[in-house]
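Fig. S4 source data, part A: sequence.
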Amino acid sequence: MIFVCVGSREYQFNRLLKKIDELVECGAITDTIIAQIGHSSYLPKHYQYKRFMPDDEFRRYQQEADLLISHGGTGSLIGALKMGKKVLAVPRLAKYGEHIDDHQTQLVEALEKEGYIKAAWCIDDLLDGINSLEKHEIRRYNKPSLVLEIIEEFIRKELKQ
């Protein structure tokens, strides 16, 4: 099963959801797909979705998934890594109205360089990324990397405010 998560912020991620729909429709993806689509206006036609999920349901789908396709959000990526999941990250891009800037590219780039995740930098590379993760292992998260330590410390400080 593939679990797709695009976060809960007020931005759409139609580009990712449409591409997955195309890949399912043409038979390139045959796995069951469940998606959390947030504020996206595009509604998938060929796979299951919910706009939002309670935390326990979200974590259950993360646990059950063989592969996670995620936006480049800190919470989604760190949560998946802590579960030891294979992650294909697709950073949101400002030029498509998916966020106010391209900050997600920085986190995704750092985690990919450390070997924790695979990134799809172009939406047309999504299928190659999925196939790559199905065939190859990635570095398992077993201790905090410097990047994750910095992010987790930032989150702790933000929660205290």
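Fig. S4 source data, part B ends here. Residues 110 and 147 are 7 Å apart (CA to CA).
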